[in-house]
Every structure is written in C-alpha cells, then in structure tokens.
Design brief:
This protein has 666 residues and is of the alpha+beta class. It contains 14 helices and 36 strands. Helix 7 (377-393) links the parallel strand 24 (366-372) and strand 25 (398-402). The termini are far apart. The structure holds calcium ion.
Amino acid sequence: MRTTLFLILHLALVSFAFAQVPSTWQIFSPNSRLQTTVQFQDGQLSYTISAYGKSILKKSALGIEFLETELNNWSTAVTSVRSFKEDWKAVWGANKNINNAYNELAVLLKNGSHNLHVQFRVFNDGVAFRYVLPAQPGLASINIRKEKSEFAFADNLKGWWQPKNFNTDEQVYRTGMVSDIRNANTPVTFQRDNNIYVSLHEAALTNYSQMTLDKYGDSTGLTFITDLVPWPDGIKVKLSNQMTTPWRTITITNNLDALVHSNLLVNLNEPSKIANPAWIKPGKYMGIWWQMHLGAKTWFEGDSHGATTPEMKRYIDFAAKNKFQAVLAEGWNKGWKERKDFSFTESYPDYDLPELAAYAHKQNVDLIVHNETSSDILNYEQQLDSAFALYSRLGIHHVKTGYVGQLKPAGLLRHGQYMVAHYRKVVETAARYQIMLDVHEPVMATGESRTYPNMMTREGVRGMEFEAWSTGLTATHNCTIPFTRMLAGPLDYNPGIFDLLYRNADSTKLRTIVLKKPQGIVRVHTTLAHQLALFIVLYSPLQMAPDLIENYEGQPAFNFLKNATTDWDESRLLAGAIGEYALMARRNGSRWFIGGITNESGRQLSIPLTFLKPGKTYTATIYRDDVTTTYANPYPIKIEKRKVKTGELLTVKLAGAGGVAVEITD
Ligand code: CA
C-alpha cells in the first residue's frame, strides 16, 4: 500500500507528454561518462547513447509488437527516476567483490487502462533496458510477434561476431565493420578507435526466447534490430498475463580490462536464491572424454569402452595425486549404443557408479556425472528428479549435461523460449539437490550465475573438441573468444592438450579420418605453452585438463596445471588486442597466475609485475616457448624459476600460436 502511494505521488511530480509533443529525458551514469537520452514522440519511444564524449548509438527505436493489438499503441509517457548502489560478494568469479551502481529511468507508457513499463539503467560500464508488462485488467495471454528494439550505431565500428544461429554458438568468429554484419548471435563486440569498446548482449534471460540481431533496412547499414528465436508457429514468446523481458545490454568501456571484467550482466540478475552455498566450489577436473573424441575409445560398452570401473579408478587416483577436485566420465550410462532413450540412473555393467563415488570421495575427489540428453527433452525431464536424487544420495555434487542432435519435441529451436525454460528448470532442480552444473550445447549465459551460483560453466563456444574431428581451431580464435564469448560468462573450452600433434594416438582411429571430414592438418593448432596459458586466460570456475593421463604423466609442464587453481580473488587483463593477443593475471590469496597467448604471429610480451606487494621477494616459475619452438614444432617448452619483485618487467618471446604461463608464489 505504501509503495503504491509513493508511486502515485512520485509520478505526479514528473513530466508527461501527449502525442505530437516530443518529450525528452536524460540519464547519466554515476560517474557521468555515459549518457542515455530517451524520447517519446507520436507514440514512439526511442533512445540514444553517448559515452566519453562520443555518440555511440544514434536514435534507436524501441517497442514490442504483440498479437494482442490493444498493447501496440501507447499515447502517453510518464517517467520516474531513482539511483541504486550496493556491494555484493560472488560465490565465485574472476573478481569476487562486485559493485553495482546505476541511475534508473522508468518510463510508463499508457493507453487507456493498459500500461507498459520500459526501464533504463545507466551504469559506469554500460546501459541496459527492458520491458515490463504488469498484470492488468482484461489481459489473459501475451504473445509476442516481434521485439523491435534497435541498436543504431552512430559510426561504422570494427566488430567481432558469430552469424545468427538459433541452435548453436559453436561457430568461428568473423571480423569486419558494422556495415559488413548481416546478422549475429550475441554477445558481439565492437571497437571504436583504440579507446572505446562496446558489447551487445542480454541479461537475465529467464522466461523468454534468446535475442539475436538482424540488420534493419536503413541505408547506412549501421542499425541492428532484435530477432527473437521463434516457436514452430512463428510466435516469438508466449506468456500468461504478465511479462518481464531480459535486459538488453550495451556494455561500454574505455579499456579492454574493464570490458572483459564488466559485471553489468550479473548485476542485472537477481541475488542468489541459494541460501547456503558452502557446497558450491570452483575446481579443476579431468576425465574419460578426450579418448572418445580421438576415436581411441567408445562411449558405449564393448571392447573399447572408455568408462569402465578400473579405468575410472585410475583417473580418480591420478586426479587425487595431482590436486584435481573432480573426474568426469562420459559414456557410463545406458543409451549410448542406440544414441536414444538414455537412462540417467542405470550404468553399463562395467561401470559401478556407487562404488566409484565412494572410492572418489575417500580421496577427496568428486565425480562429474555426465547426462547426455541427446536433446530428447521430455525423456530427460521425466528422469531429472530421480537422477539428481540418486547422485545426491551418493554424495555427488557435479553434473555435466549435453544436448547433441535434433531437438525433441520436433520443430523446437535450441535457443527458443521452451529450451530457455528447460535449462532454467535443470538449474533449479540441480540447486535443490546441491548439484553444480556444466552445460554443453547450452543457451548463452546472461549473468544468471548470480541467482543460481551452481550454474558453474557452459560450452556455447567452439572449443577443444573441434581439434579432434574437424579442421580445428586457430590461435586467432583463441585470442578472440576472451573478448567476445567470454563476456557472457564462464566457458568450458577444455584447454590443456599436451599431445598436440597426436603422436601418441592411433592415427587410423582418429575421428577426423573416420568421419571423413574435410581436413586441415589434424592437430591442436597452438604450442604447448599456449595450452597452459589458456587455462588462465579463459575463465571458468570448473576448468578441465582434458588430455590422457599418459600424456601428462612425467611431463614437467603438467606442474603448472597441478598447481593452478580456478578460484580467483581478482583478475586483471594486463594487455591485449582482440584476435591478436591476451595477457591475463589472476590472484588466489597471495599467489598469482599469468597466462599470455598470441595469434599466428610471434610476438614479445612485456609483463609488468606492478600488482605484487612492495618489499617482498616472490618466486616466478615461467613456462614459455623455447627458442626452437614454432607452430610446426610446438612441443618444446622452457621452464625457469626466477626471483621477482614488484615493478619488474618480465619480457618473454612467444612463438607464432605460442604462449607463456607464469606461477608466482611468495
Ligand atoms: Ca559441443
């Protein structure tokens, strides 16, 4: 009651306008560097954004076209403003201490008895807006025909994007100008000169379909319009009597570190719904996985079955000895031979889940239970409770899900509203059973890990598996994803392959050959030092060392993965250029880990150790490309120890597709 009264009094104080008379409102970021101007004229709402004295988005229209036509016309707009500020601590993250501060402008559009709220929030590192349709008389269902939010760039910026795809984000990034982009999946990254970076994405995708971007038919070629992933009948979103859209986010920073470490997305999500998150822990894992991708083992039972009890025990022993927290087994459960009707509780006879769980837990290692749904959603949802209850009884806290193949029910798209709801249902169910999730073939992250911190990591990236059975990845790709895909949230890329040229693999079984895919050179397309560095550069609270035990055992370079953590107090991008190189430093307590990677061009990287505490001497263990290391000769790695102090500059030469990884201890 008090809230309602406050709202009425507040609204009475602010301006409103009738049609034909343009009304304009301005709102600034807390530090005044970003500015959004919102305008209402002739029933049309629009906005512009400027930052650091430059126009970023010119006049961009807003609106949603509903099947319910009474919601398509708005005659008046009234506004209210408020400011908000909080500090909160994340359960895990690249940085755990997070500041959330913004100024908000809420526009209330009215037409007779109908209301639509459009909320704008301006942060120091970006702008976000969303539409809220509250329950109102006579409104029994809501069907969205089209969301018409525009992003009209003022200038033809450089961009990095994946083409629009309603089913996958496992694509190669393209580079060009805004005017070259026909359509895109988000996040998509833009660069204005060398000092302003922009990323378009969304936050808090909860009960809606994913946003992609299309080009709007204006002559400049600089205007994007949202294109939502549809239902089979073409309707984009179906709701009952109220609607809260995801936030449309325009992250804007004046340096790459601030872009990569922006907390805009998590800040736009609700606080954690998990009251006691003590069971949620970052960690490293290994597992029975790469051998199937290489073709050496099978996912199903038989002579070459990968996931057997003795083999899993060997992996658990190796993980325990090397301070890894979890072990994954794929192909442990019934359904793999037929690739359908998977059971998530019944093991193959040669894999004893309860025994392995007990065996692992005795050594402080957890199992990661793999649930390959084969995209048969009803089959998975029917078993979800009983499966998670079983894992919970066995004390297991990790599940990796997968969604390969054609979606069932047929006609649905992986990034549509039905699947967004499904993924959310799995996260909520997992939270009830104290299970952390790693989702493959997911819908893109939108900051929901704040609300459900058991949503640890996900794929949604062209990752290591592509090196096993396709023309593979490139070092340029690896130098692009920290500035594009990683802006959405943690990514399960699976870096850390040591046998880069598959010297120890049976070449006749390699799936690239077996599947007769168009081949480049079948290999991992970087040096060994680059693989170590990716473990630090790419952020994931669950990070996999994916190679076989045989390829790690006795390798001095493995000490880096053994000592590395995935639990960070702070992270800093020390240097980088999108698609060219990235140099990342992350701190856990008093230890620092540094990863530097380069594209196909060799380069010298200078690592300024300004972040070390004064007056202390640290030991740096440096893993770098040797003088003989090249892309064609990727194995040699030079490991050296040095005493270092704050302010020193470590200078390291990287081979083409090379890297450097450093552990610094006090
Ligand atoms: Ca995949």
